[in-house]
Amino acid sequence: MKYSQILASFVLAMVLFLSPLTAQAASSSSVIRNFGNEELNGKDYSGKSLIGIEFSNVDLKTANFSNADLRGVVFNGTFLEGANLHGVDFSEGIAYLVNFKGADLSDAVLTDAMMLRSLFDDVNVTNADFTNAVLDGVQVKKLCAKASGVNSKTGVDTRESLGCR
């Protein structure tokens, strides 16, 4: 009996010692790379790599994201009115409750992006690629009214990627 208690204690100690703690799973980069409840109006992010960053409840009106790498970025409740998103790669990104009014999405790659409950009034989508992107039907109709061109990076026709008729 005594040996079984020692063996059980040893096994338990080894399991606890060798198992990663859940607190170690959160990396400091995930904490640093989030922007929330801030005003970043007009900020210049052009050409930057912002992969996986989360912008939550942020004012990014007239911000410049031209040619930025926005793969996997999350925009949640964000104002991107008049923002320059020309040539961005927003593949697999999420834009939820985002106001894109007057934004420039020309030549952007938006493949596999989820862009639900977002507004696309007066947006430039010339040469943008929306392949497999998920948008609200009403917004797709708005975008189809102005969609034209072929994306320079993917070679995909904008109207075709939106499913325009």
Describe the structure.
The chain is an alpha/beta fold. The chain has one domain (30-162): E3 ubiquitin-protein ligase SopA (Pectate Lyase C-like), CATH 2.160.20. 22% of the residues lie in helices and 10% in strands. The chain has helices at 2-18, 28-32, 137-146, 158-162; strands at residues 34-36, 54-56, 74-76, 94-96, 114-115, 134-135. The strands form two sheets. It has a four-stranded parallel β-sheet with strand order 1-2-3-4. The longest helix is centred in the first third of the chain and has 17 residues, at 2-18. Mean pLDDT is 87; it is low at 22-32.
The proportion of residues forming helix, as a percent range, comes to 10-25%
So what's the CATH class?
A: Mainly Beta
| Order of helical and strand elements | HHEEEEEEHH
**How large is the share of residues in beta strands?**
5-15%
The overall average pLDDT, rounded, is 87
Report low-confidence residues grouped into runs of 5 or more.
22-32
What is the subunit organization of this protein? single chain
SSE layout:
Blueprint lengths: L1 H17 L9 H5 L1 E3 L17 E3 L17 E3 L17 E3 L17 E2 L18 E2 L1 H10 L11 H5 L3
What key phrases describe this protein's structure?
165 residues; alpha/beta; Pectate Lyase C-like; four-stranded parallel β-sheet; 22% helix; elongated
Brief overview:
This protein has 165 residues and is an alpha/beta fold. The protein has a single domain, classed as Pectate Lyase C-like (3 Solenoid).
